[in-house]
Amino acid sequence: MDAVEAQLVFGDPATPDRLATTIELAERALRGAEVAGLPEVSCSALKTLGRCARLRDLTEADRLYERGLAIATEHHLLNWRISMLYNLGAADGIRNADDGRLREALTLATEAGAVTTALDIRLELSILRLCKGEYQAADDDARHCEETAGRLRLTLTQQIAIGVRAIVAGHRARRSDLAALLGRFAELGGEDDDFSSATHGLGTAFCHLLHEEHEDALAELDEASAREARQPTPYLSLIHGPHLLLAVRSGHAGAAECAAFSGSAQHEAAWNRQFLVLAEAFVHGRAGRGDDAVDAVTRFVEVSAPYPLAHHLGLRLVAQEALDGGWGDPAGWLRTADAWFHDTAPHVARACRTLLRQAGAPVPQHRRGSAALPPRLRRHGVTVREHEVLDLVVAGLTNQQIGDQLYLSSRTVEKHVASLLAKTGADRRGALAALTTESG
To answer: At what angle do helices 270-286 and 240-250 cross, to 10 degrees?
Structure first.
């Protein structure tokens, strides 16, 4: 009874002192189950304790889930083994975007016919996939969950699936799809659920960002964060990293808020951590510590590697700050972001190009074939035609021979070569070969 009550209390946001009460009940259930030799009750209590621990310390949560997995494996409790793998896999996804154990848990749940658990795991995978920019796969998974949950009348699961699809639409800058999905989410009572903060904080806010509506995005995240303060979520929220970055960018937060965030549970999520690192770049830059700001951007690039949308949005935002502060490589960051957003978020791409012009930097041409340019060359602003010339230079052709192949005059080829040298910083014609062999 204690184990069941602990689950009910944890799932009820209206319960006063919800976490403290849940932990007390679950710990009492665990002690009783160990004395009475009831492995299933032990697993139930450990799962609940793990969910509580996940809100403050992923490592502690992992220990509890590993302990539950060991009990489930020893006593051949398949459903509990699936549940523990699912929770361990969720932590792997939060910590480092690793979906290995989630996929293992989904395979076991599907084979065992554990339909409801399989839906939960698939939704967790869809959230991870949307963070990684795998939007079609994320939407397909969430749509499957929505349709299956609807047939089974699992209203809460259906509601969350629609919320996930709304977030995907927001990350794709599809405003009409987002509005339609938010309407369906509300019809199912989603606005009263704790997942509402994620739907608006990750969906609506990011849609605003992709339309260059930064103040609206911050307002959306302000509201979502305030809601979570009133009604804490039973999962590790992913809205607080983006909220911190936009708050620091707007001047509403600074070094103190970054320091507090770095000691919080939200910092353990790589998705949140990338925004913290970038916020620190803003703080350093505004304090006149340009080298520290550049180091922070370098760390951001590393942490954000699994998350392409956040990575490129971050580069666009920090480039403007770096231009104003005179530090870093804002032109290179803007070219990278411009190339990525050209076909997906034209408002952001246009902002990148405007900032490049303001900086007096070359603005890349988006001619046919520009998408095939190596990222390194795009960052230097090399055009499609210059890339064609570069390939022939590397092949050892003279200006006259290049002109003959491309139907250009020798003088025009000479201008293209000079432009390549200026844009890339190469000191001589022969050094241009390195640009075609280096990756990245």
So the answer is: 10
